[in-house]
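$ fold --in a.seq
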Amino acid sequence: MAGIPYDGKITKADGKGKWWDGEDPQSLYAQNHPLSEDSENNGAIHRQWNWGNGVAKPTDAYIEKFYQRTIDLIDKYEPELVYFDDTALPLWPISDAGLRIAAHLYNRSIKKNGALKAVLNGKILDEEQRKCMVWDIERGQSNEIEPYTWQTDTCIGSWHYDRRIFDNHHYKSAKTVIHTLADVVSKNGNLFIKYSGKG
């Protein structure tokens, strides 16, 4: 939608007379930040998974708020699995916020259960990182038996509901899902499937 600003760009002034009047959406999502290097080139995103490859660094205030909000969620809801759609830990290595979150999640789990029951997922992990986090291969699979537990996540259609996939009967078949599950489990992995249906 060329010319229509993304809703993540809304500001405190845009809330006048609305239910969120007085709140600043940028303090929640911080989308109104400097663009990363070559961000308008769709191919740049995969080169920029790791910080330092041209990614615009958030402010220290944003990083601390991210840390505090994540710790609050862990304390309130006690999740056993935390999935960061990120390389290794969030904001690593420009900040230790992700490392502090991991330590908090793991220590809390050990204190509550007497043993570590919590799982933390990350992408593009090196061999050392796979010893302390579950490697996530988004919409892919390993080509060999992995020494450590790993996960793949996919869905039966597109990531989001797409009426054309439904109308044209292009959802994955039960046979495909079962074959994928067998392959993933045989290689020490877990299969996470997102249903991309309506509603």
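$ fold --in b.seq
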Amino acid sequence: MSSSLTRRSSAPVVADDDNRYKAVQAKLDKLGKAMDDATVELQGLRRSMQNNADHTDGVSTDISNAELDPKFVTLTDLVATALAGAAREVHKLAQSAQETVDLTYKTRRAHARLYRGLDEVRSNRREKTPRAGFFNR
């Protein structure tokens, strides 16, 4: 029972202090895509774990019918139950990841709605303009 999930060596989005409009948009986009990929991987993991749980349950029935020692039936049942429980928890994690994806894209749209105009004005001027929030003092 192996997993095709691979560990990433670094974070998908660098957390730095670059708060320019285009940088924030790029970070939100990259985060959304990374979380979307994680959601797909988690859904695959859940299916695999559930399949293993179902298979293990069948093995438990088979060894029970073969009249093996009842302790092996009990242990196999416990493994099947643990796998099914883990699959449920992975499903919850996948749902949380999907909620994060949705919120990330919603945040990206809200950020664009609030700051795109200011970025366009600032980007198309030769003169320096105040940073966002300068006049909110």
